[in-house]
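pipeline/complex-builder :: batch 7 item 3
reading input block
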Amino acid sequence: MGAKVVTITSGKGGVGKTTTVANLGVALARLGQRVVLIDADIGLRNLDIVMGLENRIVYDLVDVVEGRCKIRQAMIKHKLFPELYLIPSAQTRDKTAVSPTDMIQLTDKLRPEFDFILIDSPAGIERGFRNAVAPSDEVLIVTNPEVSAVRDADRIIGLLEADNKGPAQLILNRAKIDLIRKGEMLSAEDVTDILAIRLIGIVPEDEHVIPSSNNGVPVTLNENSRAGMAFRNIARRLMGENVPFMPMEDDNNILRRIARLLSGG
Amino acid sequence: MAGFFDRMRGRSANKNSGNTAKERLQFILVHDRINLPPERMEMMKREILEVISKYVDVAGNQIDVALENRHRSSLLVAEVPVTKTNDDSEGQAESRLDAADADDA
């Protein structure tokens, strides 16, 4: 009953977990869902910045767990979406301040009032990852089309399987369409073939992403961004909608258009 | 003309780095998944050969051990060519030793 708890994790750092959580949160809120985002990366707070909410933090996750405040007091309401909240991570503590049981208890209290609870997992496979995954109904693994990131994703899949955490789904982030077409980058098929898990989204590399996080406005609010579109599609898939994958073509490239015309393709 | 543009798009290259990445990953993961690095696998091969040689003659003193992946479960497949000991034998018999990976419950 109640909210679905979705943990976003990756093994390797820097593949785009936090960006993914922020964008899926906003995309789900735009679809009318009641959403809470929990930053479970204790000691390395980031999600508040990507969401543009860093100036409004009073209490954090550790304050909630240690009983210094009520859950509601630590929930920061988003400026544009009244049903989108963030529970920020603590900046001065470490992973041991929270246990997997704490996370389960917290999400159980939130479940009745929300549709989605998204948890931003820290990189790695230790305590922080265990905390983030403990309450999850679904796990999304973010990876990049690179050997090291895919290797770490495989390790995470193995750990989730050992824990009987249902089949995880994959988000392939920062796919460079041009390189894939030239055969100089792993394709989505290559990666799903190797990892043997279901793909829930391909997010193309997009120059809109960095300015978005500079501004604290998730890129999915930018209608012109292809990455933003990809995140909106993933949000709809999370809600159970069958959304076809975006064509990998970059139609703005004039040279390629000419090439296609000339080769009759 | 199409060929020219295909070459421009890099399609004519048979061996590009995307394929190399895929092959490297497959090799890495097959060892990762059962926590047996290539060097240790060589040690294991030598030990298996030693044990089997106590009982039968292994043809060429060589065994072939391969790791295979099937839907995220791993299979250790050893091929051990043995020399027949009866006098009327002419060649070798092959026996297979399959061991399922214990890591995958």
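note: The mean pLDDT of chain A is 93.
queue -> next item
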